[in-house]
Amino acid sequence: MPTSDRSAENAAVRHRWTTRTRAVLEALRRNDRFRTPQQIYDEMRSAAAVSMGVTTLYRILHKLEEQQLVETQRGEGGELLYRAYDGSATHHNLVCRGCGHAERFTVESLGHQTGRVAQRFQFSDVNYRLDVYGTCRDCNQPSE
Ligand SMILES: [Zn+2]
């Protein structure tokens, strides 16, 4: 294959990737709930957005996470949930196990405490997560 064909093909692949990435971001920004990739996939399908396989969606989500355009949160069952990241500082999420709605909170002393524990046991490069789950008010409402 001549070089020019190949670069045209690369440009087409890049273009498709960009279009799909934009569609994923748009889907994520439609609401601020944490969702599984399958839920995002289903939403995109029903919105007749750009079509892509689940594998591609996973790759795009991973890429967006690296670029800090999405934030992730472990669901109670260990599955990874995603939502668009708005760039706010270190925080934790209280996540509704029913609908993925999340409230942010910070624990002032947590970073400090973690640092002290790490120091005591001579650990370095310490990272931590605090995940809190519950049922939000909307999900608690009895359905009529
Ligand atoms: Zn809820």
UniProtKB/TrEMBL annotation:
Pfam family, one: FUR
Single Gene Ontology MF annotation: transcription cis-regulatory region binding
Gene3D superfamilies recorded: 3.30.1490.190, Winged helix-like DNA-binding domain superfamily/Winged helix DNA-binding domain (1.10.10.10)
Domain of life per record: Bacteria
Claim: Zinc is one of the keywords in the record: yes
UniProt-listed CDD domains: Fur_like
BP-aspect Gene Ontology terms: negative regulation of DNA-templated transcription; regulation of secondary metabolite biosynthetic process
Residues that, per the record, bind Zn(2+): C96, C99, C136, C139
InterPro entries reported in the protein's UniProt record: FUR, Fur_C, WH-like_DNA-bd_sf, WH_DNA-bd_sf
Major subcellular site: cytoplasm
Keyword list, A-Z: Cytoplasm, DNA-binding, Metal-binding, Repressor, Transcription, Transcription regulation, Zinc
GO CC terms: cytosol
Cofactor info, note text: Binds 1 zinc ion per subunit.
Cellular localization per UniProt: Cytoplasm
Cofactor(s) the protein needs: Zn(2+)
Quaternary structure and partners: Homodimer.
Family listed: Belongs to the Fur family.
Protein name stated in the entry: Transcriptional repressor
Annotated organism of origin: Nocardia uniformis
Lineage, opening ranks: Bacteria, Bacillati, Actinomycetota, Actinomycetes, Mycobacteriales
